[in-house]
């Protein structure tokens, strides 16, 4: 159940999901404790995949260039912190963007040039086979998770694909959950985080029926608590997990695991949650997705 005053409580459905076993374990990218996949004059790059999404953390150097050629679909760029500036080029268009921002970059050929040293994150679907092959945890998904719905991109944005940058400083608003942006492939909750440890008497354990959650630690430290359902077949049961992760890192949470995360430091603890494709339940709440006018929802045919 969700914690006190958690707006997500209104999303709970009475529908019982069809659970398929064996359940997929969580997967982790502990970038602070792993060797980078690539390291050169552009900076150092780490990768971690889930079934539908690749999380790419980059400690970029000034003048670093990060290019995608023949990119099959739209991807997201996160600039979590003030002071980080990039130049994004795609399909003949060019924009200079400073953090904190969320940027959606078109398919095809694109380049991110970093103007100063700092952290950037790319969120790219697993349709990009070249990046999948570089993920150290690719073996975790040798067999697809039967509980994750097949990936299907949402409709193209109004007016077609182009570089679309959104401010990460939109003020909080009563009745609106988080700071949500969606593209055609990815949705992010680009929050500010919380200062101090989370109150253990007010956590929000919940599950998702058929999609993963990518909990990206941007600052601080977290314990990710996960519990899988008990079925009639005890051989499918999994032990609870209480995974302690510093930033930068990502925890890939599979359905239908019940989960909640708790900040563990006295300073800033900041998560960004990502979903691929975008979440229908969040999208159907009026006013929750800040760029909903740019990115239409599919016709679900209900």
Layout of helices and strands, plus pairs?
Layout: E1 27-29, E2 38-40, E3 43-49, E4 53-60, E5 65-71, E6 75-79, E7 85-90, E8 93-98, E9 101-105, E10 108-114, E11 118-125, H1 129-132, E12 164-167, E13 180-182, E14 187-190, E15 194-195, E16 213-219, E17 221-227, E18 241-246, E19 249-253, E20 258-263, E21 268-275, H2 280-283
Antiparallel strand pairs: 1-19, 2-3, 3-4, 4-11, 5-10, 6-9, 6-11, 7-8, 7-10, 9-12, 13-14, 14-21, 15-21, 16-19, 16-21, 17-18, 17-20
Total beta strand runs: 21
Instruction: Give the low-confidence spans.
Output: none
Q: Any idea what the CATH superfamily is called? A: Jelly Rolls
Rg calc: 19 Å
Summarize the structure.
This protein is mainly β. Helices cover 3% and strands 39% of the residues. It has a single domain (7-170, 177-283), classed as Jelly Rolls (Sandwich).
């Amino acid at each position: 159940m969700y914690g006190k005053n958690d707006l997500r409580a209104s999303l709970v459905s009475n529908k019982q999901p069809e659970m398929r076993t064996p359940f997929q374990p969580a997967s982790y990218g502990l970038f602070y404790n792993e060797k980078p996949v690539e390291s050169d004059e552009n900076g150092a790059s780490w990768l971690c995949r889930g079934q539908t999404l690749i999380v790419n953390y980059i400690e970029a150097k000034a003048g670093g260039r990060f290019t995608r050629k023949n990119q099959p679909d739209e991807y997201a760029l996160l600039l979590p912190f003030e002071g980080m500036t990039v130049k994004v080029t795609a399909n003949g268009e060019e924009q200079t963007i400073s953090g904190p921002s969320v940027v959606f970059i078109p398919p095809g050929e694109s380049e991110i040039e970093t103007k100063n040293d700092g952290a950037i994150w790319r969120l790219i679907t697993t349709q990009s086979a070249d990046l999948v092959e570089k993920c150290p945890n690719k073996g975790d998904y040798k067999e697809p998770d039967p509980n994750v719905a097949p990936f299907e991109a949402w409709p193209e944005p109004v007016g077609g694909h182009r570089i679309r940058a959104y401010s990460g400083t939109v003020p909080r608003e009563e009745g609106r959950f988080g700071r949500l942006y969606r593209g055609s492939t990815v949705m992010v909750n680009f929050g500010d985080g919380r200062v101090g440890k989370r109150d253990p008497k007010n956590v929000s354990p919940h599950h998702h029926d058929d999609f993963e959650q990518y909990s990206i630690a941007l600052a601080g430290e977290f314990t990710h608590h996960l519990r899988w359902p008990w079925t009639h077949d005890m051989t499918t049961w999994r032990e609870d997990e209480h995974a302690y992760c510093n930033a930068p890192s990502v925890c890939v949470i599979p359905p239908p695991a019940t989960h909640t995360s708790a900040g563990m430091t006295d300073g800033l603890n900041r998560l960004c949650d990502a979903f691929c494709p975008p979440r229908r339940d969040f999208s159907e709440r009026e006013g929750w997705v800040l760029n909903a006018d740019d990115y239409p929802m599919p016709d679900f045919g209900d």
